[in-house]
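Q: Focus on the chain.
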Amino acid sequence: MRQRQRKRDGLPASPWMAGVCLAVLCLEAAPAHAQSARPDTRKMTCEQAQDLVRKNGSLVMTTGPTTFDRFVADARYCMPQTRQVRAKFAPTSNNPDCAVGYRCYQNRRER
């Protein structure tokens, strides 16, 4: 039988444990603002949100205190799953129901 390695100098005994410790440290060290880096539709005008979708083609934006959605500029950004899009609305600073872009849509019968 293989004997367990012993801790030396307070370090983890195995490479696996060292990897786990490193992962935990990296997660704790991640900047708190990383979650807020996503564009927020509520902080821009309807026109600005639409322009951002057009320029990026596809992106995820915050739409409320605890919600987010993916918006696409057109059906090219939905392939290969589907080629259909439906209008996607979100609140903006000047319009509570702005047609920001589109969402990918797949008809259940065509799956």
